[in-house]
Amino acid sequence: MISLGSLFGQSSPPLIGVDISTSGVRLVELADAGKGVLRLERYAAEPLPRGAVVDGNIENIEAVSDALLRVWKKSGSKIRQVALGMPPAAVITKKIILPAGLQEDQLEVQVESEASQYIPFALDEVSLDFDVIGPAANSLDDMEVMLAAARREKVEDRVAIAEAAGLTATVMDIESYAARAAMHRATEGADAKAGAGQRIVALFQIGAQSTHISVLQDGDTVYEREQPFGGVQLTQDIVRAYGMSFEEAEARKKAHDLPDSYGAEVLAPFLENAALEVTRAIQFFYTSTPYTRIDQLYLAGGCAALPGLLDIIAGRTRIASALVSPFAGMQMGPAVREQQLRTEAPGYLVACGLALRRFG
Measuring CA to CA, which residue among 72, 95, 98, 74 is closest to residue 20? Predict the structure, then answer.
């Protein structure tokens, strides 16, 4: 898995995963329970004010750092080293072929030389990282290397947020990679039984303002796309239906404190629209790639656990569908409220994937 980890040093215990999204900050702390089993020690979330993060860009560093400090205190964690994520749109990734057997310093020079061909910015304006994937498919004398680059200012914004909260950013990853790592760990048992090597799996992460779609075959990503649809549309529907402020509508939506007519008049049309968005995305995948099927569809993100969403998507797409619980198969620490976690877990996929960096 390619990450931006070497920008700040490699991951090493202890470490917590922190996901900064448009709607809030989520934190996950994992521990090794022994015999290959992980334990969820703590998790927590804190909402962000509107406009603090827009399209993955940090617009209000103070508001986000305050939220990060609150969520860290709320969680009860004592760990100050964090793994953070960059939105996929903010990171340029490219597979390149280089001669095998290069020394580390030679490899860095070659990577920088290759990077200048693919990055539309001056190299002194970007944070650059690379990961050796392995031997090239068609040449034993070459190797495949994954290159990753992000605008330095966007990386530094996230580092500054951690520092302002009294924490230290030791790993910077890519959110979509972290999500896929968490999904793979949580679903590998089920996928192995179903013959995952032959299956095509789609992950829909439905967030506040956008849905990120990843399609994988045999663990390799064959398609990625982001479309502007998310839970904020439901909040806006509530605002229009009941004359609430956006903040009140968001709070009452999360607290399940809405009028009796909400289910039929507001939620049901939103679910229909969500299912339509998913089916359109799948059709676009079929028409823009050589693939003609999806064998398994997974839902994640803060919006994924809405009552009825999974059933309507499974019915409209006619594809086996399931929610991803990134903590499946883990032990639960004494601070974890398991009943609450059942509905909230799909929203922690990225944070969990970031926390997994503690284990290499």
Answer: 72
Query: Is the Cβ–Cβ distance between 279 and 316 less than 8 Å?
Result: yes
Rounded Cα distance between 274 and 303, Å, is 10
Helix (H) or strand (E) holding 44: strand 37-47
Q: Could you say which architecture CATH assigns to the domain 90-152?
A: 2-Layer Sandwich (3.30)
- Helical ranges in 79-137 per DSSP H: 104-118
CATH domain 16-89+153-233+263-357 topology: Nucleotidyltransferase; domain 5 (3.30.420)
Sheet (strand 296-300) strand order: 220-227, 211-217, 200-206, 296-300, 321-323
For residues 54 and 154, give the distance between their C-alpha atoms in angstroms, rounded to a whole number: 12
CA-based R_g, the chain, Å: 21
Contact partners, residue 347, CB within 8 Å, separation at least 6: 26, 45, 300, 301, 302, 304, 305
Please list the residue range(s) of the chain that carry CATH number 3.30.420.40: 16-89+153-233+263-357
By the 8 A CB rule, do 132 and 8 touch?
Answer: no
CA dist., res. 358 & res. 360, Å (int): 6
Task: Give per-10-residue mean pLDDT for the chain (360 aa).
Answer: 45 85 96 94 95 93 98 97 94 90 88 86 87 86 91 94 96 94 87 66 95 92 94 96 94 92 96 97 97 96 94 97 96 91 94 93
**Model confidence, pTM:** 0.91
Where are the CATH 3.30.1490.300 domain residues in the chain? 90-152
Measured CA distances, 227 to 153, 209, 236, 277, 284 (Å)? 25, 9, 18, 9, 11
Closest CA to 347 of 213, 203, 178, 206: 206
